[in-house]
Structures are given as structure tokens and as C-alpha cells.
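Input set for joint prediction.
Command: fold jointly, output C-alpha cells.
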Amino acid sequence: MSKPHPAMTRLSDLKPGERGTFFALLADRVRGLAQNNKPYFKCAFKDLRRSATYMVWADGPHFTACDTEWQVGQFFKIRGVYTEHERYGAQVDVEQIRHVQDRDAAEGFNPADFVERSRLDPEQMLAELRNVIDAEIADLPLRKLTRTLIDRHAEGLKVLPATQRNFYPFPGGWLEHTLSVAHTGGWLANWYRERHPDLSPPLNRDVVIAGAVLHDIGRAVELEPGPGPLDPAEPTVDGRLLGHLFLGRDLIRDAAREQADVNPELLRLLEHLVVSHLNHPEWGSPRLPLIPEALILHHADDLDAKMEMFARCLTRDPGPGPFTERDPVLGRHLYKGREV
Amino acid sequence: MSKPHPAMTRLSDLKPGERGTFFALLADRVRGLAQNNKPYFKCAFKDLRRSATYMVWADGPHFTACDTEWQVGQFFKIRGVYTEHERYGAQVDVEQIRHVQDRDAAEGFNPADFVERSRLDPEQMLAELRNVIDAEIADLPLRKLTRTLIDRHAEGLKVLPATQRNFYPFPGGWLEHTLSVAHTGGWLANWYRERHPDLSPPLNRDVVIAGAVLHDIGRAVELEPGPGPLDPAEPTVDGRLLGHLFLGRDLIRDAAREQADVNPELLRLLEHLVVSHLNHPEWGSPRLPLIPEALILHHADDLDAKMEMFARCLTRDPGPGPFTERDPVLGRHLYKGREV
Amino acid sequence: MSKPHPAMTRLSDLKPGERGTFFALLADRVRGLAQNNKPYFKCAFKDLRRSATYMVWADGPHFTACDTEWQVGQFFKIRGVYTEHERYGAQVDVEQIRHVQDRDAAEGFNPADFVERSRLDPEQMLAELRNVIDAEIADLPLRKLTRTLIDRHAEGLKVLPATQRNFYPFPGGWLEHTLSVAHTGGWLANWYRERHPDLSPPLNRDVVIAGAVLHDIGRAVELEPGPGPLDPAEPTVDGRLLGHLFLGRDLIRDAAREQADVNPELLRLLEHLVVSHLNHPEWGSPRLPLIPEALILHHADDLDAKMEMFARCLTRDPGPGPFTERDPVLGRHLYKGREV
Amino acid sequence: MSKPHPAMTRLSDLKPGERGTFFALLADRVRGLAQNNKPYFKCAFKDLRRSATYMVWADGPHFTACDTEWQVGQFFKIRGVYTEHERYGAQVDVEQIRHVQDRDAAEGFNPADFVERSRLDPEQMLAELRNVIDAEIADLPLRKLTRTLIDRHAEGLKVLPATQRNFYPFPGGWLEHTLSVAHTGGWLANWYRERHPDLSPPLNRDVVIAGAVLHDIGRAVELEPGPGPLDPAEPTVDGRLLGHLFLGRDLIRDAAREQADVNPELLRLLEHLVVSHLNHPEWGSPRLPLIPEALILHHADDLDAKMEMFARCLTRDPGPGPFTERDPVLGRHLYKGREV
Amino acid sequence: MSKPHPAMTRLSDLKPGERGTFFALLADRVRGLAQNNKPYFKCAFKDLRRSATYMVWADGPHFTACDTEWQVGQFFKIRGVYTEHERYGAQVDVEQIRHVQDRDAAEGFNPADFVERSRLDPEQMLAELRNVIDAEIADLPLRKLTRTLIDRHAEGLKVLPATQRNFYPFPGGWLEHTLSVAHTGGWLANWYRERHPDLSPPLNRDVVIAGAVLHDIGRAVELEPGPGPLDPAEPTVDGRLLGHLFLGRDLIRDAAREQADVNPELLRLLEHLVVSHLNHPEWGSPRLPLIPEALILHHADDLDAKMEMFARCLTRDPGPGPFTERDPVLGRHLYKGREV
Amino acid sequence: MSKPHPAMTRLSDLKPGERGTFFALLADRVRGLAQNNKPYFKCAFKDLRRSATYMVWADGPHFTACDTEWQVGQFFKIRGVYTEHERYGAQVDVEQIRHVQDRDAAEGFNPADFVERSRLDPEQMLAELRNVIDAEIADLPLRKLTRTLIDRHAEGLKVLPATQRNFYPFPGGWLEHTLSVAHTGGWLANWYRERHPDLSPPLNRDVVIAGAVLHDIGRAVELEPGPGPLDPAEPTVDGRLLGHLFLGRDLIRDAAREQADVNPELLRLLEHLVVSHLNHPEWGSPRLPLIPEALILHHADDLDAKMEMFARCLTRDPGPGPFTERDPVLGRHLYKGREV
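C-alpha cells >
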């Protein structure tokens, strides 16, 4: 191949007026009727960070292809000019377009690049979570219970977000959040076990680790993948009618019953951690933490969730000025213009 | 029996200065040391509505008996004078006293009179509840599930209060409350089923009845009898760590699993009713009602609970004036001086 | 009439692309200037459930008629094609159009079909309400007072909604809600009167019925018809400055003064019911219920209002999936996909 | 009178161990039985700021008089020693005692000194209030309406507190508060009328003054004198069932109807001020202020009430240290130890 | 000047369809591409109360001038026709247009007319504020401290709004609000000092005046001018990270340290006023008022802020009907249709 | 010393009826008058966990010594019998008593044993805190600032509680809490710095450590020792009027100004951490956390505080049953009866 490829770029990296070659997903295609009574299509091409409109007029070059060959959900290689229309927003003026082919992988095409996902590899996170369980839970039946539940839902957990919209709202988010909570929870359990030697029995680290790993296990049945590959997870019927606290505890209870050898008092404490980890009644928590382990879990969970929201808000905010736009979940403008 | 018995009265019916013969429970007996260095006993005799102190001095007539024969929890037949000490409160000056004997039943002695309890007979209420289930739940497996659960916990339910302190806080209260909620819920289901004919599927009366009967079934494991026969019910460990919503749904879920023939959608709606019947998150409800049946159950439950608190407050308030003392749970003074 | 009429349909029943003949109201007509400097009209035709745009261009067939003959608020018989424009929404391409004529009634034209209204007949509901008053209120002066107030405001009440926006927000809603509350309140009064026989004086059913009938009588002066025949009711000046609690009690108080024979204690209890029926201070209730009758009225009222909102949300939700859109007043997604 | 009287003092000015001669009210007298089976009386003598116990033993000098001659509510001249018992609190050891006689007025006896009351003379305050009405309300019918209402309730208003317990909770308090609110409201009305010249119609000072004078007129029927001369005012039945907002507006509305010449718009604004002056729904306000005059009244009212609570708390706090005890209504410790 | 000028008008005074000559600011100018692939500009011309669009097409008379000579932020003299497009809103059809020239001042052109600002002259208000300080603060070092701070920030204060968005949100607003609070606070201090003569030490009027003048001095560093001359003030980094309470107290504390002669107790009270003037914790107040002076300042501040919001809402509301649109900050519809 | 000492015990370890020899503090001594008109003293002797009454009657053996030699605040060696009076509570019947002497140290007397204090040595904690500062804060000027502030207040900090009543409410508590928060904060900063590598600039660990060490530095001026050696710390005047957030930031700001070399942006972030660490406005936090470091500090602080309350409640609860008494600050019963 003597002639060099035109360098590939990303749709979301183009500046207004700039021409580029990029891969894009056809996310929407709607047929309409123009004032001259001729049909047209309004197509939306997108990558992870930008969506741009391409108006396909009846007398333009791509009308027939659009009408007969293009399907929403397909990927395309496009050469075009990006513009920003003052009323209609982001537009792309398509000059060349074809479906993505296998060889495009060589130029960096990866369908997974088109959806927000954890920066960490799900398989690796899952392996790490199994390691945590095996290495950090001393009580054998409790360790087995925890492993069983993770193994049983492993496939789903790999693509699950931590929540539908609030924190880690992308595939892999469940694992990323859970790993972090387990890690922090384990450290805090060590710290406070040593810090309060007069507690009897001493603070139970196993309960904290198992509680951290399983506190959101109910998400596996509370949420299900959205209708399309790019759609966010949605609540199941049981998810809305009962909520992830009840559903998660069910999974634990059923697995413990099958296993039959879990210390009943350990199980009870674990269930209490699941039931009380939201802490605040106004957040839907039906119980307040009544043991120190539940307190630790609540803080490890809440801090990790908020920290992800902070980081996402700070790194994605597009505007000028030293503060971000008001984050609707956090209810505040974060300070992004700091120098140190 | 030639000589007429002195007419029996009740401790709580005596006016200050009045002499009477009555049965009483020895509720407390504490040994002390007087200023003259002689021992004494301070005893508390009580019936359902009043507790009065009897100071047994070392040189008085009953010291030895009190020291060696009287036990807290025993019943006595007493003749004495009731007074109200301005600092030490209700007193009884005991003139004659002996343990209750079998023959006292003839004069009306009944140990059950000494604890607050439902004015309705538990056996009869239980029978009525079974009737409601059998007559009002059309779906056979759902009916069976509901019956199974009531039958399984029947013994405990007969002596259970509806709540530890707030409404129907006395043995039999659970049954009295549940019956009333089931009755009202059934009527409201009929009314609104007819009132909203466009609902599809129509409002499900079976779900309302089963939900009403089982909404507080978790109390059977949330509460346990107090240490003494006169002590109020107390939360179990699971009761505090998990709460009656989780515990009640467990009972339902386990029974349905055993039974295996309950329509899963019916079961799901029933579980939702249990989980959402408290309605307000700030009352510890983890879910809002999402189906009309849950709304009906919430109102039937809440109205019945409040109505019992109103009635108890209005009928027990001892003070003068047209309004009751401020009820600490209701947070208001009720109007008791009305003429119509 | 040899040739069969084309079957009439409803605008809101047409599918995109479908042609039909239907009656419609001209709800809006705005003159504009196109890019070619020629005038046009943008008209909105609607029936109860749908509004569709018809662009009347200067060189189209209906421009002159639209300009000189069509008036907002008039009804038309239209044949046309319904389409959904991806940006401009629902459109109708009008092929034939004329004003509605008297004979159209034969084909089912009824102007009342174009506004949301109670599914029940106002005259019938009013008659039923009078029956309730006459049959259920035993105390004669109280019965007369209640009748007088309903009779006095009968004309307005027939077209009044229960509330401007929240529940039963359509003509006839006041009657539909009031009838239901009176019916439920009466049943509950019977139930609790029997259930709490120790109340003295016993629970007063007359007060509950009269309170239910009159609890929202203030709406008759709080709300007034909107500017157009299809506009919702709007608050009057007194409605906003004083609110329906004060206004309703005024009506009662004035009527009782005229009548002069109402038992003052009954009147006082009735006024208390009006004043306290909202229950929660945060909903604007200036008093908490202090008598059992007020408690019953509050629950009968609140349940009936919420039930109507549930039913309306469940039967009108257009979207896919097992749950409705989030209802803004109820603040939740209802479960509409249930099978039983 | 050759022999000098022993200097009179006040019970509440005596230091522990000090002997003095003072007037006191017999506020309580309870008969009891001592350990030696002899009767005794426990009497409570009090003046405005202190209550002290006198134990009248059967073998002491005053037993017969106490038994046969002393009545609760009578005033006495007493010579005795004041002590503070570490367990039983303030005590007075009575050496001489007799009923108060007419000539004691010469030594300063005044029964009114024994109850908390406004430092200002009610007659004078009432006259001043009438002056305010006559001088400050320009609109003649509105002025007449306001005068009529004050005149009609003048006798009661002179002894009414502003509230039962919260602010100005003593006879004369209603007048003191009302005068202050009217004065402040008038000034603020002037200030803001000038400050916002673009308001049309301009801010209505008459409405503010009339609203200030009448905002709490409902207290005249909401509260009634307590059972004894020293008991605080208590809510009437209507006071609790309806509240002073409704009751006050009734008085205004009825008087306006009689008078017949009040501008209906003025009357409506005045009613709105009464109805909305509490401002916050959580304080029981059924309406928010919707006109500037209502805003002014709310602030004049609230500031005056809080200022009285501040002043009372700061001037009555008995303890050491730079801050007062926590005031239960204000919910804070005020700074009383300031130097400037 | 023989030929009469066409009478100048204001853009915001034109009725739809009316032609007029007016001055306007070019507030926005965006280049776009029409369907015919020719460029166009969409310009926004505005005065204080209205913004109207002018579409400059490639083949129209002003395209070249717009492309090469017009800058956002410049002022123009325009003759044109105002129309209201049913979809695109306010439009102006420009017939003649040129940049504003010096001589236009003779016809009334004043750039300051194009931004909302206080109706009072900042210089005059500043002078008045200095007068208040000099005349009303008796304590010399306190007076000097207050003067120093105002003088030090005088330039900024003249253009500062009282708040970014809520009350007096326009240049000069800070001064207008501060003057009013100082005036009202001074009057209230006099009134309550006389009203509560038993306070010791008496209510300190100097503290109220100094507190009123300086309560919002922190705004001088909390806010900074927006990016453009017409943009509202924006929070500084310190403004968001620390807030105006901390920043204002810093200014006071630093100035007092420099001055060295301020009575420390006076300074402490003044600081307390700054720190507590928001009163409600939920409004961000870290302290409750603990001295009467702080209470007065809170009410003077809050009433003045709300009154400005009332007046602005009442005088700007454009709609029909007796009530304003719902004010989003006040959360209510105000009554503007009153007759008296 | 041939004869063995009677074994020393602790007052709080004696069972009712048991005789023992122990050291005790005379915490209270009140003179009273008995019914026989003879004086008596009521003394309270206490150690850390119990206070017991000794009634010293005029004709008893210790009256003269008590009257003339015993002073509140002195320590005594006592032999006596401990009893629990059913009305008057814990009593000690003193048989032998003398003032503590120097040689009693040999038997274990240590005045510090009589007040609650941290289980850790203040000197050691202070040294550890200095180590943390020196080892963990990389930025030299920030490290110096932090060291300076700790050194400057070192003497006070050693005896300061973390709070007056809520958490770590005993001498040394400030250090114990601060050390723990710094340790946890440092670990969390490491964790999240690595976890969110896309933050730019990266999460600043120095700011977290310095913020943790100094977040409550304001307590050093907010609280002062109570009046007696055993009395808890009390708020200073500035403490109540301004609060520890303002006071702590003042200390930091003043020290930074002296030092002059602290990076202004670092200082600003540190100040923000102090100002926002309470997080919730309803807890008195004037600012929400706007940077990730502030979020970490809030959680490290809140968890550590709650954990201490949990541990104290769990280890001090005296009652029977599996749950503690309701902790008034935590608002719940904790589970103490767990087995694992």
C-alpha cells in the first residue's frame, strides 16, 4: 500500500469547519418530508463524546444507500466536515461513507470505544475481586458463600453499572465500585479494630469484606441491559417493586441456605450490612447501622460513590471558568481551575 | 354462706381515703434501710390502671410475711385504705392481706384482668381471620399461602401486640388490627375496582386481602414476649437488625417456595404490598406504592392504627378540661369534651 | 343517501401515514412569514388526546378560508393524512375541510368530546349527591344545611374539577371526588363506630357525611372557569389570597347563620373537619385532626385523590415498558405491565 | 405610728438563711400522713419569682390554722427564714403568719404584684392603640372597622397575653405586642412606599396598620383566662379546633358585614394579611404573603415576638457564666455577659 | 435643524407589526449555512427589556456589513419593523442601520440604559452611606473602621449587585440594599432599645448600624464583574470556596487589626452579626443570632431583600390576569391586579 | 511493713452490700437540716464510673471532720460498705476515712484515674502527630505552617476533648481523633489518587493531611477547661458567637500571613477543607465540599467520630439484653449481644 492512509481522527476531536476521517455509529435515522414534498433522512452519527446530524436530501449522493442499506446500530467509516449550526447544533457534511469492515480494526476500530465503560478491564477486575474474597475472608463458609454469589452472577456483573444514573453509570462500574469499597473497607476494618481494642468481640473484618463485596449484589437482579447495545441499564420489574436491598439479601439468604454451613450469627450481621448500608432513611435505608462494621461499610460505599461523581464531573466538564457546571446529582459547582 | 362477703372492688376504682377489698398483683418489692437503721420493704401493688405503694416497716404487721413469703408476680387479696401522698403518689395502707386462692375465682379473680389486652377474644379473632381468608381470597394458591402463614404462627399471633408501643400495644392487638385492615381493605378494593373500570387488569381484590392479612406477619418474628408476664413485647435481634418488612417478606417467600403453585406475578404484587405499606420513606418505607392495591393497603393500615390511638387516648385520658393531655405519639391534644 | 359515508374516525386514533375523516377543534392559528416573504398560517387542530399542526401556505388550497373564515374555537370536519414529523411533531395534511354543521351530530359530533371530563354524568352525580345527603344525614338541620349549600352552588359544581391540576382535574371532577369521599367516609364511619364502642359520645356519622360532602365546597369560589371553553379552571383572587379552606368554611358558616337551627356543637365539628382535612401542615393544613371523624375524612379524601391520580397515570401512559413515565405529582413510575 | 414597722422585703429577694417579713400567696396546700402516722400539710407560698415550701407538722404552731382557716389563693403576711434544702428545694420556716388585711396596702401589698404582667399599663396601651387607629388609618370605613373590633373586645384584650407560652405570655402582652407591631409596621410601610415608587397602586399603609392592629384579634376568642387568677390563659375549644387565624378573620368579616361600607378590595387585602402573617407553612400558615403589605406585617410581627423572647430570656436568666441557659423556644444560649 | 428627526422610540416599546427608530445593542451574531448552502448571520439586537432576532441572508442588503463591520457589544441606530414569529419569537426586520455616533447622545442614547441597574445614582448612594456612618455610629473607632472598609472598596461597591441572581441583582444593588438595611436597622434599634429598657447593657445601636453597613461587605471579594459589560457578576474562586460570610469577616478583622483601637467586645459583636445574619442554618448560616442586635439585622436584611424581589416581580410581570407568573425564587404568584 | 494492707478495691467495683477499701473524690458536700432540726451533710464520693452518697448526721462519727476539714475536690481513702437505696440510689456507709497521703501512691492512688481521659498518652500522641506532619506533608511551607500551629497550641491540645459532649468528649480526645483522621485521610488520599489518575492536577495528599491535622484546630480557642478539674470543657464566648470553623481558619490564616511563604493556592484549598468539613448545611457547614480532598476529609472525620461513639456506647452500656440503651446522640440502640 504505497499511498499513506489519511490519518484517522475522532468525530469528537474535530473542530468546527475541520475535515476528518473517522469511525462513527449510526445512532438514529428518521425519514421526513421537506417543504418541496421530497423525502429526506435525518441521520445521527456519534462516537463516545459527540453526536452530529447528517441531513440526507433526496437529491444528494447518499439518499439511496441511506434508504436501503444503512441501519441504526451499524458502524461506518466516514470522511466529512464537521460544523456547528447555530440552531440545529452539531452537523457533519459527509463526503465519503462506507460500512466498517474487518480490516478497519487495523486502523484502530473497536466497537467498545463507542460506549462509556470502565477504564479497567472487567475480566481483570473480576479476577481481582475473587482474589480479595479468597485472600481476605478468613472464615471458610463465609468465604465460600461470597465466592459462590460472585461466581453465580459473574457474567452479568462484568457489564453492570454501579447505578443506572448516579455513580459509575457504565458497564464495569459495578466491579470497579465494589472492588474499591472492599479494599477501603478492609483497610478501615484493620484500622478501627486496632483503634478500639476494648470492643468485645473485636470488630469483625470478615463481615466488612463480605459486606463490601455483596452490598450491591442485588443490582444483578435489579438492573438489566437497556433495549439497545448503547442504552443504559434499566430497572427490572422486581427492581422497581422491591429494590436492590431486598433482592440482594434474597440472593445471600438463598445461597446460605443451600450451603448450610454458614455461622448464623455471621450471616445475620452480613444481612444487616446489606440492609443498612444506605444509612439515611431519606435515601431509602430501612435500617440504621447498629454495628461498627455497618458504619464502616456505609462510609466506604458513600465516599467511593461520591468520589467517582467528583472525578467524572471534574474531568468531563467542557465549559470555561474555574468551576464546573452545576452537577445535578451533587448539587454544586466543583472547583476545576485549581493549580495544585 | 350466711355472712355476706364484703363487696369486692378494684384498686383503680378507689377514691383517696376510701377503704376497699380488692385483688392486686405484687409488681415490685425493694428492701431498704430507714433512718433508724431498721430495714423496710417498699412494695408496689397494681391492677390494670393503677399502681400503689405499700411501705412495710420493720415493726409493722406484715414485715415477716413480706420478707419470707411474698414474691413479685404473685396475686393477693387485700383490704386496705387508698391514699394519695402529695410527694410519694398513690399509697395503699394494707389492713388485711393474703395470697389469692382458687376459690377467689368465684369472686371474679382473673389474672388476665391485670394486663391490658384486646377487648376481643383472640380465639374468636383468629377464627374470624381464617374465615376472611377462606371467604374472600378467590385465587386458591394465594388463599392457601395466606392460610398457611396464619396457621403456622397462630399461637404467637394470638398474644402479639400490633406494635410495641404505638398502636394496639397489647396482646391480641395484632389480630385486632389485622382483621380491621383486612375488612376495610376488602371494602375499599371493591369500591375502587368499580370506580375505576378502565384499569386493566382490574384492581385485584385478592391481592389487597392477602396483603392486608400478611402486611404485618413479620411482627411474629420481629417481636417476642417481654421478660415477665406483664412486660410488653420486645424486639428480637433480627427484629432490630432487619425489621419486620424484611422478616415478613421472608416468611411469605419461603412459604410460597414450599407451596410452589402460587402465580409468580401475584406473589410479586403481594411482596410489593408488604414492602411498601409504610409508604413514607421517613417512616422507614424502602419503597413507595406503585400499584393501586398498595395505596389502598397503606391507607387502610394507617387509618386503623391512628384510629386506635385516637380511641385509646380519648378513653383513657384522666385529666379535666375539654382536651386530652398531649398524646406523645400523635403530637396533639384531642377533643374529648364534645357533646355530640 | 345511496353512497355510504366514509367511516368517521378520531384524529387521536390515526396512525402515522393513515388517512381519515374526523372532527377537530381549531385550537390555535398563528400567522407567519416564510423565507420567501409570503405569509402562512400555522394551525393546530386537536381532539381530546392529540393536537396536530397544519401549515397553511399562501399558495395552498385553504389559505383564503383560513385567513378569512376560520376562528380559533370553531369545530371542523376534516379529511386528511396524519404524519409525525421528526422535528415538528404531529402534523395533519388536510385534504378536505369544512365547518361542523348541525347534521354532523348524526355522525357522532359532540363538542363535549373535546374536553377531558368525568366519565360520569354531572346531573346524575348531583342527583346522587343529593340522595346521599337526604338518606345519610340523620340530623335534620345538618342535613338541611348540607343540602342548601349543594343546591346553592349546584350549577358551578357540575363543571368544577376537584383541583386545578392534581387530581380529577376536569369538569365533573368535583362531584366525582366528593361522591366517592362521602361514600367511603360513610362506610368507614360505620365501621369504626362499631369498632370502638367505648367512645363517648360515639363516632358521629352525620359529621363525617356532611364533612365529606362539604370538605371542598370552597372550590366553588376558589376556582373559576378558564378564559376559553377548553381552558382549565383557574384560581380566583380570593382563591389565591385566602384558599379554599377559609372560603369553604365561610360558605358553611354563613348558611348556618341564615338557617339558625344547626346544633352549634355539630357546626363546630363540621367546621373543624373542613379546616383540618388536609392533615399535614406542609400541605397547608392549618390544623391537625383532633376528632376521629376528621381522621376518617382525611384518609377518605387523600386515598380517593391519589387513587384517581394512579388510575389516570396508568390508563394514559403512552410509552413502552412495564412502568409508566415518572408522574410528576406522584413522584414515581407506576407498574402498568402487570399480568394479574 | 411610733414603732417602726419591720422593713418589708420580698420572698424572692431573701438569701438562704435570711429572715424577712413579706407578703405571699398560698399557692398549694396538700394534706399528708407522716411516718409517725400524724397528719401534716405541705404548703407552697409564692410571689412572682419564687415558690417556697412550708411543712406544717401536726405538733407545730400553725397546724390548726392551716387545717381550718388557710385557703389556696389567699394572701398572707409572713415573717420567716428562707432556706434551700438540697433535696427538697426552697423552704420557708414560718415564724409569724396572718391573712393580709386592708391596711397592708400601705406597706405596698398589691395582689397584681403576684402575677407576671406587662410593665406597661393596659389602659394606657389601649388608649394608645386607639390613637394609632384614629391617627394612622386614613380610609374612614377601614378605620371604623378597626376601632369597632378593638372596642368590642377591649375588656378581654387588656388581660390577654400575646400567646399562651411563647412570647409576651402574660396579661397585657397582647396589647404590648400589637402596639409594637403597629408602630413598626407603620414605619416600614412609609419606608418601603417611598423606596419602591414604581409599585402601582403604591404600597398601602392603611392596610399595614389595620393588619397589624388586627392580625392577632383572633386571640380574643382563641384564649380564655385560666382556672385560677394566677393560671395562664388557655385555648378555648374553638381555639384548638379552628385556630386564631380563622377566628380572627371571622371577627373582621362579621364586623365588616355589619358596617357594610368597607371597600371590598381593602377588606380582602386585610383578610389576606391576617391569613398569611405566620408566613411559614410549617408554623401553620395556610397562605404565603402575596402582597408587600403582608410581607411587612410578617416581619414586624416575627421580629417583635422574637425580640420579646430575647429580652425575657436575657433579663431572667439566673445562672452564672456569659451565656443564658438554653432557651427551649429559641433553641439557643443567648450571650448575656457582654460588656457593651 | 430644519427637518425633524423621526421620533426615537425603544425596541421594547414596539408592538408587533410596528415600525420604529431605536438604539440597540448587538448582543449576539452567529454565522450559519442555509439549505441553499449560502451563509447567513443570525443577529440578536436588544435593549434592556427585549431581545429580537435579525436574520441577515447572504443576498440581503446588510450581509457584507454584518460580516466585516458589526461586532458583538457595539451599539446601533436602527430603523425597522418589529414582528413576533410564532416559532422563532421576537424578530426585527431591519431597514436602516448604522453604528451609534457621538451626536446620538443628543437624541438620548446612553449605553447605561442597556443594562439593568439601580434607579438611584451610585455616587449619591455612596455619599449617603458615608453620611450614615459618620452621623449614626457614635463610637469613634467603630465609625472609623466602618468608613475605612467602605472607602477601601468604594469603586467596586458602586457597580456591585446585592446578589448574583436573587435580590437587587444589578449594578448599584449592593449600595441600594445596604443603605436600606442600615436605615431600617437604625430605626429598629432605636425602637427596641426604648421598648426593652431592662436590657443591660442596653441594645447597642452602633453595633446594628455598623453590622448593617458591613453585613455584606464580603460581596466585594465574593463577586467579580462578568466577562462582558452586560454580563452579571460572577462568584470568584474564594467566593465559592469560602463564601461571603468568611470573606467579609476577614476584611473587618484585618482592618480592625490595622486600626488597633477598636473595642474588642464591640468588634466581637460586629463579627457575630456578620456571621449570623443569614439566621437559618439551611440558608448557610453557621451561627444563630445570640444577641438582639443580630436579630434586628437579620430581619432588616431579609425583609429588604424580599421586598425588592416582590417589587421587581410585580413591576416586571408581563402576563395577563390578576396574578404574576410564579416567581421561581419566591415560589409563588404575587397579586398584581389589586385596586387599592 | 509486717501486717498486710487490706487489698484496695474500686468504689465502682463494689457490689451492693460489699465492704471495701478504696480511694474516692469528694465531689459534693451540701449542708441540710433534718426533721429533728439538727444539721447534716450530704456528701458525694465518686470515682470514674460511680458516685455514692454518704449522709453525715450530726450525731455520727464524722460530722465535725466533715464540717471543718473536708473540702470538695479533695481525695480520701475510705473503708465502707456500698449499698443501693431503692429511692436514694447509690450509698456508701463510711467506717473509716482519711485524706489521701503521698504514700498512697504506692497503693495505686493516681488523681488522673478519677476523670475520663483518652486511653492513649497525650505526650505520645502529640509526638506522633508531629511525626505525621513531618513525614507526610511534602510541601515544605505547608508542613511548617501545620507544625507551627500544632506547636503553638500544644499545651491546650493535650487536654482538649474532640467535642464537648458528642465524640471523644474527654481530655486527650482532640489528639486521639485528629491522629486517626490524619491517618485515615492519608490512606484514602493515596488510594483515590491512584484510583482516579485522570484528575489534573492529581489529588493532593498534602492538602488532605494538613486539612486533617488542622480541621478542628479551632477547638483550641472554641473550648476552655471547665470551672473544676473534673468539669468538662466549655465553649468560650468566641466559641459560641463565631464557632470553631471561623476560629480555626483564623489561626491558619494568621499563621500563614506570618510565615509568608505558603503557596496561596494550597492555603486556599486548606481553608476550604476547614470550612467545608462538616459537609451538611444542617450540621452548620457553611460550604459544601467542592474538591475531592474535602470529600475525603469529611468522610474520614465523620466515620472516626461515629466510630468512637459506637465504641463508647457498646463498651459502657450497663443494661441487660442484646441491645444497648438508646444512645441519645446516635439515636439508636446498638447491638452488643453478638457472638462473632
